[in-house]
Amino acid sequence: MPRDHRPSTSVRVLLAEDHGMHGGLALRLGMEPDIEVVAQVATGDRVVAEALSVRPDVALLDLELPVRDGPDVAAELRAECPDCKVLILTTSARPGALDRAMNAGAAGFLVKDGPVGELAEAIRQVLRGETVIDPALAAASRTDTDTGTGAASRTGTGN
User: Fold this and answer.
1) Are the beta carbons of 47 and 56 closer than 8 angstroms?
2) Would you give per-residue pLDDT tens digits along the chain (159 residues)?
3) How far apart are CA 37 and CA 124, in angstroms?
4) pTM, whole model, 2 decimals?
5) What residues does the Response regulatory domain cover (predicted)?
6) Any residues with CB less than 8 A from the CB of 42 and at least 6 apart, and which?
7) What structural domains and CATH numbers belong to the chain?
8) What are phi and psi of 93, to 5 degrees?
């Protein structure tokens, strides 16, 4: 997609997704005037090196990337590229996944097949310093905890 229609302050996004959707997701995100997908990778072991090369503002990481999963990669990415915000994408809540993602330094936890407009807005929100957690994923995570606390205390937006 040509850069000439984008503002000079477009958000640079790295997309790490292995299910063949990333081409479609990259195209759909690229339709947003302020978002530019600058790199795409299909395995977790390639994320950090690619991020060091392209310096994205936001990395979208599939929860279940091959070789290294999203939370594992997120922790290293936050250490190596501290200015890069991380959003973990998933198809469904798995026990402990929300806590693992947030403890690894992710700024958000979202459904990957949701509307692209919601994902684009989540990207903008994390750049403003907000935490974005899909309410359905947060609710599913709460049902997986014995105490009803933990992940539930981090839902919504804010730091």
Assistant:
1) no
2) 344 455 568 999 999 987 655 458 888 898 999 999 999 999 999 999 999 999 999 999 998 888 998 889 999 999 999 999 999 998 877 778 888 899 999 999 998 888 899 999 999 999 999 999 988 888 877 665 544 444 433 334 443
3) 14
4) 0.82
5) 12-127
6) 16, 17, 18, 22, 65, 66
7) 3-154 (3.40.50.2300)
8) -75, 135
> What is the CB-side half-sphere exposure of residue 159 using CA atoms within 13 A?
3
DSSP state, residue 61: E
Residue in 45, 40, 12 with CA at minimum distance from that of residue 25 = 40
Nearest to 80 by CA among 38, 45, 51: 51
For residue 33, count other CB atoms closer than 10 A to its CB: 11
